[in-house]
Design goal:
By secondary structure, this protein is an alpha+beta fold. Helices cover 17% and strands 45% of the residues. It has a single domain, classed as Thrombin, subunit H. It starts with 10 loop residues before the first strand and ends with a helix.
């Protein structure tokens, strides 16, 4: 999809992600993130349309932020694509973010934007 048609500005970010799906915990890593969702790389396949919980371990310069709790939100799998090494890339849309989660996400995105502007 053309980035100009996206509703939310995306930022490249590789942070640890945990996906909780039907009582299973899958570990992965983000590729990019926005106010509306995140793309993640996981070793297990995910089905489009599935609802799950995603937790992102927010970091500053690769170090877990002492001032921020992990970000956890409900999400839905919008698309999936297999990778060359047999993993699964998936696009997750955040659903029903509360005020606290939304504020936390906006602080993280602002830090990513600031770091990108300094580079």
């Amino acid at each position: 999809m053309d980035d100009n048609r996206r509703k939310y500005k995306r930022f490249e970010a590789a942070v640890a992600a945990e996906i909780e799906l039907d009582g299973l915990m899958l570990e992965g890593e983000t590729r990019d993130i926005s106010s509306g969702g995140v793309s993640v790389l996981v070793d297990e396949p995910l089905d489009e349309g599935v609802k799950l919980a995603v937790t992102l371990i927010l970091t500053e310069d690769g170090i877990e932020s002492a001032s921020e709790e992990s970000f956890t939100a409900p999400a839905q799998v919008m698309w999936t694509a297999p990778t060359d090494r047999g993993a699964c890339m998936a696009g997750l849309r955040f659903t029903a973010l509360g005020h606290i989660e939304s504020s936390q996400l906006q602080r993280f995105l602002a830090a990513l934007a600031e770091n990108r502007d300094r580079a």
